[in-house]
Amino acid sequence: MIGVDIIKVSRVSKLAKSDVNNRVFTKAEVEYANKKAITKTIGDACSQRDNTFAGMFNAKEAFLKALGLGLGDAFSLSDIEIDHKKSGEPFIVITDKIGEYLKSKNLSEVNLSISHDGGFSIAVVEIK
Fold first, then answer.
1. Within the chain, how many helices (H) and strands (E) appear?
2. Hey, how many other C-beta atoms are within 10 angstroms of the C-beta on 21?
3. Are 83 and 93 in contact (CB under 8 A)?
4. For residues 59 and 7, what is the distance between their CA atoms, to the nearest angstrom?
5. Residue 105 maps to which CATH number?
6. Measured CA angle at 28 (ends 25, 97), to 5 deg
7. I need a surface site. Which of 8, 16, 64, 102 has the fewest CB within 10 A?
8. What is the pTM of this model?
9. How many domains does the chain have?
C-alpha cells in the first residue's frame, strides 16, 4: 500500500503558526521543527523550519492515504507522529494505537520518504 502527498510549503507554514492546540503537530514535532533555521538563504523558497513542518504534514497525509483512510476515520493528524533518526531519516512513530491498527490489517512495516524543492514538499509512505 502506497500513499503520496504534496503541498505548497507556505500553506503549512501558516498552519503551523496557528496550531496552538497541537491539533496537527505533536509537541515533539514542534520542538524538532523549531530547532531548524527560520531564515531563508539566497535562492531558497522556504526556510528549513517551514520545510520540516510541511514534510511532517505530508507524511501524516500520505500515511492515511496508504491505509485508505480519510482524516478522522481512525486517526487524527496529531495521533500520527513523525520523528527522525540521527541521520535525519524520517519515520512514523508506531504508537500503541497505530500498532494495533496495523496488526488488525496484517501490516507490520511502514517506510517513509520526504523531499522538498522549489517551495513544495512531498512525502511517500509504503506500508506492508
1. 4, 5
2. 7
3. yes
4. 11
5. 3.90.470.20
6. 70
7. 8
8. 0.91
9. 1
Grid cell digits, residue 29: 514535532
3-state SS, residue 5: strand
> Which residues span the domain enclosing 53?
2-127
How many CA atoms within 13 Å lie on the side-chain side of 66? Answer: 26
Helical axes 9-18 vs 48-67, angle rounded to 10°: 100
Q: Phi/psi class of residue 72: alpha, beta or left (left: φ > 0; alpha: ψ in -120 to 50)?
A: left
Number of residues in the chain: 128
Tell me the C-alpha to C-alpha distance, in Å, between residue 21 and each of 16, 55, 112: 10, 20, 26
Which residues fall within 8 angstroms of residue 9, CB to CB, at 6 or more apart?
Answer: 45, 46, 50, 51, 54, 116, 119, 120, 121
Tens of pLDDT, residue by residue over 76-118, are 999 999 999 999 999 999 999 999 999 999 999 999 999 999 8
